[in-house]
Amino acid sequence: ESEGAGGGAEGGGGGDTIVLGFSQVGAESGWRTANTKSIKQSAEDAGFELRFSDAQQQQENQIQAIRSFIQQGVDVIAFSPVVESGWDTVLVEARAADIPVVLTDRAVETDEDDVYETFLGSDFVEEGRKAGRWLVDEYADSDEEVRIVELQGTTGSAPANDRRDGFAEIIGEDDKFEVIASQDGDFTRSGGQEVMQAFLSSHDDIDVLYAHNDDMALGAIESIEAAGLEPGEDIKIISVDGIKDAFQAMADGKINVVVECNPLLGPQLMDLVEKVHAGEEVPERVKVEEGVFTQDQAEEELPNRKY
Ligand code: GZL
């Protein structure tokens, strides 16, 4: 659909209004919904004409959307790649059409040079390390085995790969920590619920759940409670994103720690789009600032949450 100032005609939109084509992953999680809202609101505030497409978490839909933006002759293309690989062909097509590309949220793996101007997003490896550091601290005084199940994000996506690797790097320093099962829950609540149910039916001694996002953690809580166990007590839960529902679950004692992943990238994205369109230099990598919140902070932080 075409959004923003006046819904421009085919081609570069009316006059000097910047026409931005944005291909979004989907609407799979609370994080994503907040991210989309931030992008749409910021494009409107910037006076850009936004052409927005939701790929329902399918790479081929994103590739199709990018090709369509090239046909339309938009001024700038921005997207959040659902998975890391398989983008070279379409990114080379955008470069050949002289349309600058901005990566947001997730990264791509590419052998091509100069196929995107900048990547604005979180450091997912560091998010994984933060999760691992909390666990190491939590079990600092015990040398008992700690049996962990891991709800991974979408297979092949940068956040899933990097949150897995950052976590493994930190817990790998002490062999009392063991990931006894790890499976893709696709960043959705239903995925988290189904996979946690499977974990519980094949393991009766789980100490910790590490969920790559809050939606999967919240789905997993339903399965943990259905199994007659106490989330946050019998099974400690580490989650990532920091959506309001996760802070509420922390306040209720069901999640132990949330590693923040900030979806409100809209304003920074529009600033980068403006600079890229004007041919100004932009940093190759723009990181997003974000923190870690534990149960004791949840009640107080909840009213401050913007997503
Ligand atoms: C992270 C983002 C991830 C979120 C999930 O930047 O790509 O995708 O952690 C979302 O909630 O589905």
UniProtKB/TrEMBL annotation:
It comes from the Bacteria. Keywords: Signal. It is found in: Cell envelope. The keyword Translocase does not apply. InterPro entries: Peripla_BP_I (IPR028082), SBP_2_dom (IPR025997). PROSITE patterns: PROKAR_LIPOPROTEIN (PS51257). Its main location: other. Residues 21-280 form the Periplasmic binding protein domain. The keyword Cytoplasm does not apply. Pfam families: Peripla_BP_4. Belongs to the bacterial solute-binding protein 2 family. This is ABC transporter substrate-binding protein. It comes from Salinactinospora qingdaonensis. The lineage of its organism: Bacteria, Bacillati, Actinomycetota, Actinomycetes, Streptosporangiales.
